[in-house]
Design goal:
- Helices cover about 0% and strands about 40% of the residues.
- It has one helix and 30 strands.
- Strands 3-2-1-4-5-6-7 form a seven-stranded mixed sheet, covered by helices on one side. Strands 20, 23, 26, 27 and 28 form a five-stranded mixed sheet that branches. A three-stranded mixed sheet has the order 9-18-15, with no helix packed on it.
């Protein structure tokens, strides 16, 4: 006959070392109940269960001739099967389930920058018994970052630069079992100089004379994206500055030169107005003589 373990103190918590009596050798023993924690909870709600009744645990299954009093419940730690004894007969009440092992997965973003919102990533638990919780028990995430306790999202804005130590995150299931997310390190870039733009737009030009002025951009995060709005046709803004090879006569207002860096910061020069005038084409003299190739030209006043 298989050994039957009878609890001396009712139903313990899932992680407790439980006392039991071994009738084969007449000795008291202790054993972990973690292997059957899930089925213990199920057992107490199984039809026919008697709350407060004695609990017995079999070593490798429950044979028909196992002893026990009516009203006892039994669980097989190998399969999770639950039995109830009534009218001198053991009856299967719950066939048992085996949960897949608790696991956690995710792909951390390893690079960030001080003062810039972290793009974030999620660690996701599976197996075990839901719901899950997530934690950073050692406070290993860099300053400004945290992990959402029920979603598993790592988020925030870093406040300290440099390489981090090992970051250790934990997922825990409803039974209290925990699994370690693969430790990793992050590189936090220090906050760079602010994005700045400078330049002095020319406000006048002449038809047929190329127009240009320099624009300097410093700081921020490269690459930069340059743009110009309100400009006349043919005017461009490049790395070299603003240029217009063939100005067209007219007045152009609200011309704005801007730069956007890789992180989305935007700077602009103040909007300016450009007036393009026609080139001088007639020389007027009040009398006198003008020579052209040695020959005099006579102009009347």
């Amino acid at each position: 006959m298989d050994t039957i373990y009878r609890l001396n103190q009712g139903v313990p918590s899932a992680s407790a070392q439980i006392p039991y009596y071994d009738p084969q050798n007449g000795q008291g023993r202790r054993a972990p109940i973690s292997a059957i924690a899930e089925t213990v909870g199920q057992m107490l709600t199984t039809p026919g269960a008697v709350p407060g009744a004695s609990l017995v645990i079999t070593s490798d299954g429950l044979p028909d001739n196992a002893t026990g009093a009516d009203g006892w419940m039994a669980v097989d730690p190998m399969t999770g099967a639950i039995y109830a004894r009534a009218n001198g007969v053991w009856a299967l009440k719950y066939s048992g389930t085996t949960s897949p092992p608790l696991e956690v997965s995710g792909t951390p973003v390893l690079n960030a920058e001080v003062g810039v919102p972290y793009p974030g990533f999620v660690i996701q638990a599976s197996g075990g018994k839901a719901p899950y919780t997530y934690s950073d028990p050692a406070g290993s995430l860099p300053g400004g970052l945290t992990i959402h306790p029920t979603v598993g999202l790592v988020y925030g804005t870093p406040t300290v630069g440099g390489e981090t130590g090992l970051i250790v995150l934990i997922a825990t299931d409803a039974t209290g079992k925990s699994v370690l997310f693969a430790p990793f390190r992050m590189e936090i870039e220090p906050q760079g100089a602010p994005l700045e733009i400078s330049g002095t737009p020319l406000t006048s030009a002449t038809v047929g004379v190329p127009y240009a002025f320099d624009v300097t951009v410093i700081g921020g995060d490269q690459p930069y994206t340059r743009s110009i709005t309100g400009q006349p046709s043919g005017m461009v803004f490049t790395v070299s500055g603003v240029s217009w090879p063939n100005p067209i006569e007219g007045a152009y207002s609200g011309i704005t030169v801007s730069v956007i860096d890789a992180l989305g910061a935007v700077v602009s020069l103040p909007p300016f107005t450009l007036t393009v005038s026609a080139a001088a084409g007639v020389l007027m003299l009040d009398g006198g003589t003008l020579e052209l190739d040695g020959s005099p030209l006579y102009l009347e006043a």
